[in-house]
């Protein structure tokens, strides 16, 4: 397999080269197999770019619903062969579907959008399938709820789209898959399947497990305690709403790196708990502080707006819970010339008021607070 190519000049140039090229490159329709969230979103996005899209799914209801939402039309038996096939099925059947697509459409390029890349690649290789026209890929995009009803044409916009290929991948096949990613607004990255699975294990699969296990601790909790929940709990449990059946498949397919990371995470938890059991013991407070400080350093590495490392100041504004108040706040920020870099909302339990946490550039934070207070807004 090729070495990791996350930020090579070639990838950078292709990311900057513009979009809208796929319709001109395809010699026929793009066929999407799997009409759930990702498949329907691919269809919606490509149709918005003028690309003909046909759909297929084991469930007649699912494919009909995706077609009704405008993601494409149901593929007919006498349709000409597609130029490109996008496999968007669950992880436990993706290798089977890729193999069938390669056999059914031998002249088409086949890609998939599964969140695990090594397991299907290894299985297809074990079966002796000719993978010349197969290019694995994975858009780092999704939602807590699945299905065509949740699909969005802009789901992939500004999100990393990882492409995995081997040294025998034809240039035109790679170019076609990259054109899909670019037309849908994705940011191209290249990795080997091994690098991909270890990376998503850290930034996606481990957080899912931690979030779900934390949320599970809420099940036996008293209602009085739950009523105190604030932004911290909501932030750390947001993805716990994800589909358990899908995640059983994802985690099972990527179990080795995830188990390794869970073991390391468990060791950190055990060390933290040991220090907290006797915080007056020599070195205990330092151990607690070191672990918390490591968290600070880790958060600082997460890319911010547009993938930059720039950090922003936070302003908390009290907003009355009535129609039009949030819109008024945002309008007045615009009138003051304050660019809002990010926004998070939180409601106060039992009170008709909310908190808007607004991220701004540090150099304008003081002026933003002063100007908002002058206009009658309450800040924290």
TrEMBL record:
The Prephenate/arogenate dehydrogenase domain sits at 28-306
Domain of life, per lineage: Bacteria
**Recorded GO terms, molecular function?**
NAD+ binding; prephenate dehydrogenase (NAD+) activity; prephenate dehydrogenase (NADP+) activity
State the UniProt keywords alphabetically. Answer: Amino-acid biosynthesis, Aromatic amino acid biosynthesis, NAD, Oxidoreductase, Tyrosine biosynthesis
One Pfam entry name: PDH_N
Please state the Enzyme Commission number of this protein.
1.3.1.12
Where in the numbering of this chain does the ACT domain appear? Answer: 314-380
Instruction: Enumerate the InterPro entries for this protein.
Output: 6-PGluconate_DH-like_C_sf, ACT-like_dom_sf, ACT_dom, NAD(P)-bd_dom_sf, PDH_C, PDH_N, Preph/Arog_dehydrog, Prephen_DH
Q: Name one GO biological process term.
A: tyrosine biosynthetic process
Q: What class of enzyme is it?
A: oxidoreductase
Q: Reaction catalysed?
A: prephenate + NAD(+) = 3-(4-hydroxyphenyl)pyruvate + CO2 + NADH
According to UniProt, this protein's pathway is: Amino-acid biosynthesis; L-tyrosine biosynthesis; (4-hydroxyphenyl)pyruvate from prephenate (NAD(+) route): step 1/1
Q: Which PANTHER family match?
A: PREPHENATE DEHYDROGENASE, PREPHENATE DEHYDROGENASE [NADP(+)]
For this chain, the family text in UniProt reads: Belongs to the prephenate/arogenate dehydrogenase family.
Task: Return the NCBIfam families for the record.
Answer: PRK06545.2-3, PRK06545.2-4
Name it: Prephenate dehydrogenase
Q: Which organism is it from?
A: Leucobacter triazinivorans
């Amino acid at each position: 397999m090729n070495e990791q190519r996350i930020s090579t000049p070639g990838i950078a140039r292709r990311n900057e080269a513009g979009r809208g090229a796929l319709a001109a490159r395809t010699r026929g329709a793009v066929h999407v197999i799997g009409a759930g969230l990702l498949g329907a979103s691919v269809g919606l996005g490509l149709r918005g770019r003028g690309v003909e899209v046909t759909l297929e799914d084991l469930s007649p209801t699912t494919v009909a619903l995706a077609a009704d939402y405008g993601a494409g039309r149901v593929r007919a038996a006498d349709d000409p062969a597609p130029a490109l096939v996008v496999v968007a099925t669950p992880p436990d059947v993706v290798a089977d579907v890729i193999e069938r697509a390669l056999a059914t459409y031998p002249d088409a390029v086949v890609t998939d959008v599964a969140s695990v890349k090594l397991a299907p690649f290894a299985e297809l290789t074990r079966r002796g399938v000719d993978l010349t026209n197969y290019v694995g890929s994975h858009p780092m995009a999704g939602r807590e709820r699945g299905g065509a009803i949740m699909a969005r044409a802009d789901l992939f916009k500004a999100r990393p789209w990882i492409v995995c290929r081997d040294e025998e991948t034809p240039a035109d096949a790679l170019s076609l898959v990259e054109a899909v990613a670019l037309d849908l607004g994705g940011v191209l990255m290249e990795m080997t399947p091994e690098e991909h699975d270890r990376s998503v294990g850290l930034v996606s699969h481990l957080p899912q497990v931690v979030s779900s296990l934390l949320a599970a601790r809420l099940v036996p909790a008293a209602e009085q305690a739950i009523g105190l929940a604030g932004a911290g709990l909501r932030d750390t449990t947001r993805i716990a709403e994800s589909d358990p059946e899908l995640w059983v498949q994802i985690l099972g397919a990527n179990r080795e790196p995830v188990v390794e990371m869970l073991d390391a995470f468990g060791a950190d938890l055990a060390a933290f708990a040991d220090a907290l059991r006797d915080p007056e013991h020599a070195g205990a407070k330092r151990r607690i502080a070191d672990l918390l400080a490591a968290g600070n350093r880790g958060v600082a590495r997460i890319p911010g707006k547009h993938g930059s490392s720039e950090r922003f100041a936070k302003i908390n504004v009290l907003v009355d819970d009535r129609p039009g108040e949030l819109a008024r706040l945002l309008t007045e920020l615009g009138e003051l010339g304050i660019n809002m870099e990010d926004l998070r909302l939180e409601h106060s339990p039992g009170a008709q008021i909310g908190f808007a946490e607004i991220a701004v550039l540090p150099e304008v934070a003081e002026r933003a607070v002063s100007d908002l207070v002058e206009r009658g807004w309450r800040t924290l």
